[in-house]
Each structure stands twice: as C-alpha cells, then as structure tokens.
Amino acid sequence: MPAPSPCVLAVIPARGGSKGVPAKNLAAVGGVPLVARAVMECRASRLVTDVVVSTDDTGIAAAARGAGAVVIQRPTDIAGDTATSEAAVIHAMDAYEASHGTTVDVVLLVQCTSPFIISEDIDGVAAAVAEKGADTALTVAPFHGFVWREGENPGTDGGDGVNHDKAYRPRRQDRPQDFLETGAAYAMDARGFREAGHRFFGRTDLVRTDPARVLEIDDPHDLARARALAPLFDAERPGALPTRDDIDAVVLDFDGTQTDDRVLVDSEGRELVAVHRGDGLGIAALRRAELALLILSTEKNPVVAARARKLQVPVLHGIDRKDLALKQWCEEQGIAPERVLYVGNDVNDLPCFGLVGWPVAVAGAHDVVRGAARAVTSTPGGDGAIREIASWILGKELS
Q1: Where does residue 236 rank: exposed (0-12), middle (13-18), buried (19+ CB within 10 A)?
Q2: CA atoms of 287 and 268, how far apart (whole Å)
Q3: CA distance 16 to 177
Q4: Are the C-beta atoms of 349 and 329 separated by less than 8 Å?
Q5: Residue 314 or residue 273, greater confidence
Q6: Model-level pTM?
Q7: pLDDT digits (tens, 9 = 90+) for 196-247
Q8: CA 88 – CA 78 distance, rounded (Å)
Q9: pLDDT confidence tier of residue 278, bands split at 50, 70 and 90
Q10: Summary mean pLDDT of the chain
Q11: Is the C-alpha dihedral spanning 41, 42, 43, 46 positive or negative?
C-alpha cells in the first residue's frame, strides 16, 4: 500500500487591526480582498490539504469563508500589535487538529499581504518539507543589490557596506548570489515547529520565486503599487473578476453605491445627492451589451426614481426585503440568480449577496459587506465604482 499523503495545513494570519493601512487584509487588489486572494492560491495548491484563516475580525472571517477557508477565531491575547505570527500559527494548528481529529504533518505560514503569491510558490515550500526532507522552507527572490547601513552616529560616522566591502565593487557575476526573503510563504515540519517555537530550525530550503511578484503591503503606497500591477499579473491567472460570459444581469443598490452615502437636506426637507457621470457611462455600456439592469433600493425617494429614468434603468425602491424583491424579479425575468451581479455597500445588502452568484462591494463598504463580497472595487461608491465594474464585465476601459 502506498504511504498516506501528509496533512499539509496552510495557515493565513489576518487580524483586523492595522495602523499602516486600515482594514488592510480586506483591501481589494485586482477587485479581490487580500485575504481571499491568499485563500484561493492556497486552495489551488497541489499539496495543501486544507486552508485556515486565523482572525479576530468578522469581515475577514466572512471573506475567508467565502473563498473556501476554515476560519479559526484568534484569541485577544495573540491578536495585538506585539503578537507573533508563530503564536497565531500554533494556535490555529492546535484548534484545527482538535476540531478535525487529525494530526498536521506540515504547516505553512502564508501572508495575505503578499498579493502576488501564486500556488506554485506555495507548492514549492510545501514540497521542500513534505517531499524533499527539509525541516523548514521559505520563498526567496534573487537579489543583486549592495546593502548599506548607517553608523550609530549618521551625521559623523557615515555608512558602511553590509554585504560588500565599500572599497571593492565586484561585478554582479563575480559576487556570490544573495537572496531576499519575500515574506510570502513559509513551510515547517509541524512537530519541529512546535518544539522550536519559531519558523526556522534544522535544514532550511530556499524556494526561488519570480522577483517581479515580490511586494509586501505595509503602507498606502504599497497598496497603490499592488493595484497598479494587478492587471498585469492577474491577466495571467484569469477568473478573479466577472466577465460578460459569467453574468446575465446587474442589480445596483443606490445609496452608498451610486452615491457617496451622504445626503444634503434643504430647509424644505428636500434631499439632494451627488452621482458620478462615469457611472452613467458604465451603465449605458452595460445596457448596450444587452445585460438586464435593475436599481434596487430601500429608500422611497424621488431622487432614486429620477436617476433611474435618466439612466433608462428599471427601479424598485421603498423595498423592505430586497432579497425577496430580487428573487421575484429574477423569476419574472427568467434569470438564474447565480448569473446576477449585485452591487452593494451596507449590511442590508447581505441577504442579496447570499442570493446571487456575483456579490460585489464598493470600496468603503462596511467591513462585513466587503468580507462577504466575491469582488471589491478599488473606487468608492459615488466616485465611479459602477463604471469600474462595467470595465470588468466588458473587458475594456470605458471612454
């Protein structure tokens, strides 16, 4: 009999608190929350048995479950700024073993703040431990730079070379090959990890990855770079965003989705909202693509009806149970709910999210809503989010 396959558990630590980028692990890159991107790549791995997300945040938990991960509630004492990733991994591994009645052989630490990690990287570190005898492994990228460090008194001491003698500048091909730790994926023999308490012990294998994909999101500038690069990298790995072939209808919430969720009230009690002209352009393009369209709102407000007339889109407003109204509309139109894209921003949109195949949240939506979404725009509601979604669907920038 062949030996049983080892249990390889991928653990993604994703706490809710983040000072550099608020709600960082739910930030959308390429229209997909960071935690969901990591889960999907782990699930695509050849060797990973199961994927766990360790979190203290309900929105992250919703995104993780939606992407197919097991969620483990992280205790408060290991969810603060000083908590180590190792503590989260050990807790998640223990909880998984207790709930599943199994023993983990190899445990992976996968960081969702590395947005361009791919399943091949994950398989690389897993195979190093599960199949090639390493005790630990990590993803690295070839590095050819000269590293400098300032002295204790920078104003007077100057700087010195760290990986080189500053008086000697050999050619790249004459220097030993250095590698940069990417921070994306690590693998450890589970028993050895418990004994050592840290991720590097015994024999550590280096698993090379594409340097172009190396990016860790620590601040808003990193996030902006990731969003700019996503169309290039994600084009090689399709399926993250909806296309015209995936859907037959687009249903739009109004407040907070087509507006910025603010209301101006005059002295007569009349309400005014601001909409984005680009959204009108996107809706017109979707209509030309012969998609069924609907505006669905709980608000009974003349401005909603007026905007719908302007856009030539049917509207149902003043609706208490949006999910029931949406289900009935789908039946009347002969459209399968799984082929509907619904755009929302707040918790009253969650029942509709559970009904359709493509729940989409706008940037700035409630954390739980972004977590429950299959895709998230990079543009806030009222600032062109609907135009962005139209460009996803139609596969082109709208002008």
Answers
A1: exposed
A2: 36
A3: 38
A4: no
A5: 314
A6: 0.80
A7: 999 999 999 999 999 999 999 999 999 999 999 998 888 777 667 888 999 9
A8: 7
A9: very high
A10: 91
A11: positive
Q: Tell me, letter by letter, the H, E, C secondary structure of the chain.
A: CCCCCCCEEEEEECCCCCCCCCCHHHCEECCEEHHHHHHHHHHCCCCCCEEEEEECCHHHHHHHHHHCCEEEECCHHHCCCCCCHHHHHHHHHHHHHHHHCCCCCEEEEECCCCCCCCHHHHHHHHHHHHCCCCCEEEEEEEECCCCEEECCCHHHHCEEECCCCCCCCCCHHHCCCEEEEEEEEEEEEHHHHHHHCCCCCCCEEEEECCHHHCCCCCCHHHHHHHHHHHHHHHCCCCCCCCCCCCCCEEEECCCCCCCCCCCEECCCCCEECCCCHHHHHHHHHHHHCCCEEEEEECCCCHHHHHHHHHHCCCEEECCCCHHHHHHHHHHHHCCCHHHEEEEECCHHHHHHHCCCCEEEEEECCCHHHHHHCCEEEEEECCCCHHHHHHHHHHCCCCC
pLDDT in tens, 15-31: 887 777 888 999 989 98
For residue 3, the tally of other CB atoms under 10 A from its CB is: 5
Please provide the distance, in angstroms rounded to a whole number, between the alpha carbons at the two ends of the chain. 62
Find where tokens 């050592």 sit. 196
Query: Of all residues in the chain, what percent carry a pLDDT higher than 70?
Result: 98
- Cβ 297 vs Cβ 255: under 8 Å: yes
What does the chain come to in residues? 399
Q: For residue 72, what are the contacts with CB-CB under 8 A and spacing of at least 6? A: 52, 53, 54, 55, 91, 92, 95, 96
Question: Hey, which residues does 271 pair with through a beta bridge?
Answer: 265
pLDDT for 295-309, tens place per residue? 999 888 788 989 999
The answer to which of 39-53, 62-76, 119-133 has the lowest mean pLDDT is: 62-76
